Amino acid sequence: MARSASRAQITITDKPAKLEAWLHKRNKTGKSFLGGEWVKRWVHINDERGRLHIGKKPGKDGTTVFSLSEVSDVRNLDPLSKEADGELFCFTVSQPPISAVLRCRNDEERKAWVSSLLERAEHWRQKRRAEMAGDGLTVAVTAVSQARTSHAEAPAAATTTTGPTTQGGDDGKSDVLSDNDETEDTSEVPEAVSVS
User: Fold this and answer.
1) 38 in helix, strand or coil?
2) Cα separation, 39 vs 22, whole angstroms
3) Which residues, 6 or more positions from 32, have their beta carbon under 8 angstroms from its beta carbon?
4) What digits encode the pLDDT tens for the residues 68-93?
5) What pTM was computed for the model?
6) What is the pLDDT of residues 118-131, one digit of tens each?
7) Domains of the chain
8) Which residues contact 166 (CB under 8 A, 6 or more apart)?
9) How far is CA 72 from CA 30, 31, 99, in A?
10) CA atoms of 24 and 68, how far apart (whole Å)
11) Buried b / exposed e along 150-186 (16+ C-beta atoms within 10 A)
12) Cβ(135)–Cβ(196) under 8 Å?
């Protein structure tokens, strides 16, 4: 048998090490007289979507989710600070209007989480800037919104948002879709339009 001259090429990228662990999260309110109680939570990073998840069970998306491109602060906490409530090995993650105080088992684990979160947050901010700095913003336009615009005398001014994707309903209102939602009607396949 003769061997084929063409071979598939595999590109290997430096994928960051998986970051997931059971940490303790401080609740803002709780039974303690001085403040919130500490609860055990599964914390993991989804590197494909650039999200930090804090949840109750492994293998599921968290109930508290941070977009790494929007994280404004990741820092170690002093045990004497009000946020740390006298506990060692704490750090905070902030994406206004939400924030979380997390506690690790030791200082090495805390250093690994903080440095990794800072690196990943910077990576996702750069990726987002690069996407926005292209030939303009890429906006998804559905067939319904194109039909509405073509029937109007003057097209409406284009608006851009950095929040969740919206889908216009027949009643003229927008329904906000999260990253996990799927649309059932596949007849409205969006097409990309470049806006300068």
Assistant:
1) strand
2) 10
3) 85
4) 999 999 999 999 999 998 999 999 99
5) 0.60
6) 999 999 999 999 88
7) 20-132 (2.30.29.30), 137-195 (no CATH)
8) 174, 175, 176, 177
9) 26, 29, 10
10) 20
11) eeeeeeeeeeeeeeeeebeeeeeeeeeeeeeeeeeee
12) yes
Which of 49, 143, 65, 134 lies closest to 100 in space, CA to CA?
A: 65
pLDDT class for 17, splitting at 50, 70, 90? confident
Which tokens in the block code for residue 86? 């006298």
- The amino acid present at 43, given as its one-letter code, is V
Taking alpha carbons only, the member of 38, 46, 39 closest to residue 20 is 46
Locate 7 and state its tokens. 């071979």
- Indicate the residue type of 89: F
